[in-house]
Amino acid sequence: MLGSLDISFFSWDLLAPFVIKGFYFSIWLTIVATIGGIVLGTVLALMRLSGKTFLEVPAAAYVNTMRSIPLVMVLLWFFLLIPFAIGRPIGAEMSAVITFIAFEAAYFSEIVRAGIQSIPRGQVNAGYALGMTYGQNMKLIILPQAFRNMLPVFLTQTIILFQDTSLVYAIGAYDMLKGFETAGKNLGRPIEAYLLAAVLYFLMCLALSKFVRLIQNKVQIIR
Amino acid sequence: MAWNWQVFCRETTTGETVVGCFGRGGDETYLNWIVTAWGWTLGVALCALVVALVTGLIVGTVRTLPNSPWLVRLGNAWVELFRNIPILVQIFLWYFVIPGIFPVMKQVPSVVLVVIALGLFTSARVAEQVRAGIQALPRGQRYAGMALGLNTWQTYRYVLLPMALRIVIPPLTSESMNIVKNSSVAFAVSIAELTFFARQSGEETSAPVEMYLAATVLYAISAFAINRVMGVIERRSRVPGFVAAGGMGGGH
Hints:
The structure holds two protein chains of two kinds.
Chain A: H1 12-48, H2 53-68, H3 71-86, H4 92-117, H5 121-129, H6 134-164, H7 176-187, H8 190-219
Chain B: H1 30-62, H2 69-83, H3 87-101, H4 110-136, H5 139-147, H6 152-167, H7 169-182, H8 194-205, H9 208-236
Helix pairs in contact in B: 1-4, 1-7, 1-8, 2-4, 3-4, 4-6, 4-7, 5-6, 7-9, 8-9
């Protein structure tokens, strides 16, 4: 039954040339999309909480649109439209990075919004009572506490993001999964290659989620 | 750029425009195709949702059982396993790896494998919500059940689950919407659903914007419809005076 499977066939030397490039791309995409997504997501969240209609409506529309479309479709859309917009072809990898930042910003903005709203109103009012401006209030009172509360959710979202990087398959970008797939095809062992990819993804995500649980207990604000 | 919606009236093999847009007698227009594709998306998503809800409910409940440490560990392992592998990789596991190891599975149609993959992937998330829902109940409820002389099964059936399941309706709503969106990865194993349609027809017709737009709108409509249905379920099942709390969440 298990006779056809031969994991030991893959040595590091055989795999490395195919996998390393994709592995780095997956990690890089995760990091860039997380940072870009949080920055853009914070802007979107502040727009939605600004109380000004001309900021609220476009931000809400953007977030709700992104959240109701599958990531694969968003990847395809950006891969189709970016060359139109800038007038020259763009690589699948670069297209994936832009898509992930734009897409994840919608999800991060919801987390930031919930985080800001979790800060008691009294804190906001106390800031204003001290004569702080909106900017000072956000920077000194609300965002530091909100980000501390949000840290575990951010990290959980980053794990999901890392898993989702495998979807760049749809536009043919060379990520970790593609690396394993190419190795499997070229070396004639596709089944073992997919299995190894699954094991690697599993171990990385498991380690990250254990780490998140550790952080969760550390950063909790005691009230 | 001018819109070209006429493209939906074209026949898929000959490229000729069909009068009335719906092909007859074996002819298939892109309009026919997208309707079928939408059917596949909904079919895969709803079947997977059933698998996810049933499995997730069982696994999530098992994880809260008192005095059964091994069942709890098994449940936890289940959740970690299916939550920590990307959905696309899980689909490849079911599509390539499992039939490779167990040749019997080669006879199973690929759409069934996708439903299993998507269902079990989501079951881990459902199980996590169900566990949280049961544990959110005051401990006194379980003790009240025991004090009434109910056994474990009866305590769950008549005391814990009826309340816990109401608490988890909002998170399950978003999981149900996610499953429609996640069904889009089925394109990778050539299930003729909306994403597969969009990619394929976009190339064939050279009108990808129209094709993508139609597919995207259908995804949005499907997710919205599920949201409404779950909203009705939530209202119908509400216990007066009992307010379910929503959480701060990410996810897809």
